[in-house]
Design goal:
Blueprint lengths: L1 E3 L16 H10 L5 E4 L4 E3 L1 H10 L3 E7 L5 H15 L4 H19 L20 H8 L3 H16 L8 H18 L8 E6 L25 H5 L5 E11 L4 H10 L3 E9 L13 E9 L12 E3 L10 H10 L4 E4 L8 E4 L7
Parallel strand pairs: 2-4, 5-6, 5-10, 7-9, 10-11
Antiparallel strand pairs: 1-4, 2-3, 6-8, 7-8
Length: 353
């Protein structure tokens, strides 16, 4: 059937309709292929981009399909999700908003108000609706539901992030959380005989889960900022400086700036390659340098370390075992990711959302 365009009521669930210029051109060339879907009260259920396109084209009436939903809000949301999420993708912010709204509405119906808790993945003893149930209901993955709800909770505090992709929001939240941790760090106490430092080398460009995923989820530092770090080295100290392939040149300058003498390079050969443009990285290097005359018993240790990866910027356990085997004295893991027996750690903890 056909109805007047101004009779259709557009809901506010969709934040961004994206670029629809190509759709408008297509409609002008061949017309509206699929009708817009509304309920019996003229609320728009599916075909939001088509509705926006023909509105901007100034059409006075359009073909519609009417579903006899009669005010059933939950069923209306299912129509919107099934039509757009599964048949023609909406933008990431639109998908996220709909998933979170659906989960919240189901919780209200089931008497479970804990929609914002990302840990409610399994059914609890008291019953009620869960994120796992939302995933099963919508036939999408449980992590997708979890991330959508997490991101929507963050957007409530950071509304300027609303139109970012879900993974971009989670990425930014991790970075900001660690920045807050850094503000609370106290100065190191005393000097160290062995120092492992893994600087957060700056990577140009911003994080995008679809194209630029190599950007880390922690605050980065420029070469000048790293060079200004006051290394708490004793008079006889061994320094292990991790460098990326792109920052190898700067690493040698850092050693000189901090007053150390370069001795050798340990190369970590990983079990799988990562991202990259000028070849894909499967190695990482650690520059060995000394100040004074520290005790070192690594004459028989190879410069090649084969060990599996276990996450971005996480160094292998085998490396620390190697250092413990050949280096002695008070040890510091600067920017280290986890606590280790016999080591002091300095830097913000990696954030897990």
């Amino acid at each position: 059937m056909k109805i007047l365009l101004n009779q259709i009521k557009e809901t506010k669930a969709i934040r961004d309709n994206g670029d629809i210029e190509s759709l408008k051109k297509s409609i002008l060339d061949i017309g509206l292929i699929n009708p817009i879907t509304i309920d019996s009260e003229y609320n728009l259920l599916a075909g939001r981009r088509r509705f926006r396109a023909i509105s901007e084209l100034g059409w006075s009436e359009t073909e519609v399909t009417v579903l006899p939903i009669n005010g059933d809000r939950l069923k209306a949301m299912r129509v919107t999700i099934d039509e757009n999420l599964k048949r023609k993708p909406l933008t990431d912010p639109e998908n996220r908003a709909l998933i979170a709204q659906y989960d919240e509405l189901k919780r209200q119906i089931e008497g479970n108000k804990s929609a914002g808790n990302p840990n409610l993945l399994q059914c609890n003893e008291l019953g009620g609706w869960t994120q796992k149930a939302t995933a099963e209901d919508l036939h999408i993955s449980q992590p997708s539901v979890n991330q959508a709800i997490q991101a929507e909770e963050i957007v409530k505090q950071q509304p300027e992030w609303a139109n970012l992709k879900t993974k971009q929001i989670l990425h930014k939240a991790k970075v900001e959380a660690q920045k807050e941790q850094i503000k609370t760090l106290t100065k190191l106490d005393g000097l160290y005989d062995v120092i492992v430092i893994d600087p957060p080398w700056e990577i140009k460009g911003s994080y995008d889960p679809d194209s630029r995923r190599a950007t880390p989820d922690y605050p980065m530092m420029s070469y000048a900022e790293i060079a200004d770090i006051e290394i708490p080295a004793s008079d006889n100290c061994i320094l292990w400086l991790w460098v990326t392939n792109l920052d190898l040149h700067e690493g040698f300058h850092l050693i000189e700036k901090w007053g150390f003498e370069y001795k050798n390079t340990l190369t970590w050969a990983k079990d799988k390659f990562g991202l990259g443009v000028w070849m894909r990285g499967q190695t990482e290097h650690c520059l060995l340098a000394v100040k004074g005359k520290p005790l070192f018993t690594g004459e028989s240790i190879s410069t090649l370390l084969g060990a599996p990866t276990s996450g971005h910027s996480i160094k292998p356990v085998a490396f620390y075992e190697l250092v413990d085997k050949c280096c002695y004295g008070r040890k510091l893991d600067y920017f280290g990711g986890k606590e280790r027996d016999g080591w002091d750690r300095y830097g913000a903890q990696r954030v897990s959302l």
